[in-house]
Amino acid sequence: MKIYTPGTCAGTQPIEGAHHVSTAIETESGVYFIDAGECAGYTAHLKGVDLLKTKAVFITHTHMDHVGGLGNLLWYIRKVDIVKGHPLTSDDNIDIFAPFTQTVDGFFQVLKNTEGDFSTAYTHTVHSFTDGVIFDNCDIRVTAVHTNHMPKKDGKYSSYAFRIECEGKTVVFSGDMRIEDMKNILPEKCDAFFVETGHHQIEDICRVIKEEKKQVNRLLFTHNGGYIVRDIEAARRRVYAAFGENAAVCRDGDVFLI
Q: Would you state the torsion angle of the CA atoms of residues 22, 108, 12, 209, taken in this order, to the nearest 10 degrees?
C-alpha cells in the first residue's frame, strides 16, 4: 500500500509549510483517509491521489486539527467528479466514521448551503463507532482502539487510534493519545506506526515501545508539535538516536510505501 501524509502538523498556530494532520492510504482498489485536517483533499489531489477512489474517511476524534478539512475534502471529491464528467454513480458510496456524528452532520449542513445544494449521484453514509472492527470490505480492515486523549462523553470514549490491516500488512495510527495508551494501541508487532508527537517527546515514545517489547518495523512521527516542525533536522537526529534508521519525521506531501 501507498501512504500519503497531506498534513503532518499538530493543532498549533499556523506554521509555514505545515498543515493540520491527515493521512491517505491508497490500495489497488480504493483510497481511505485517516483524519481530515485543513488541506487534506487539496494536498492529496496535488500529490496524485485519485479522490474519486475514496471509499471511507476515519476520524480519530473531532478536534479541529483532525477534522477541519472534512468539508473541503468532500467538496473537492464532488468537484473532481463534475470536472471528469460524473464517473461516480449511485453504486458508489463514501463511508464517514467519527466517534460522534454531530460534527460530521454540521459539515454536511454547510455543504448543503453551497452550490447545487451539494447534490451528488453517489452517496455518503455517516457512522459512529466504539472499540472493535468498524470497517472490513475485503480490501482493508479497520479496528478502533480508544485512547484517553479526550474525556468520555455520555459514557462513550471520544478519541481513538486505528489499526489498519491491508495487503498482509498492519499499520497503526495513534490519533492523539496519552503516553500510557501506547501499550493498548500497539499490537505485539506492526509493519508501521504513525504516532503523534504533538503531546509527547520523541524519546518517550521510543522508550515505551522498547519497554512494552513491541515490534515496530517502521516508526513514522506525525501530528508534529512546534518543537519538531521548526527544526526538522534536529528532530531527525533525535529520532535516529532514539530508534534507528527505520524511523522518519513526516512532512506535508510525503509518500511512504509500506
A: -40
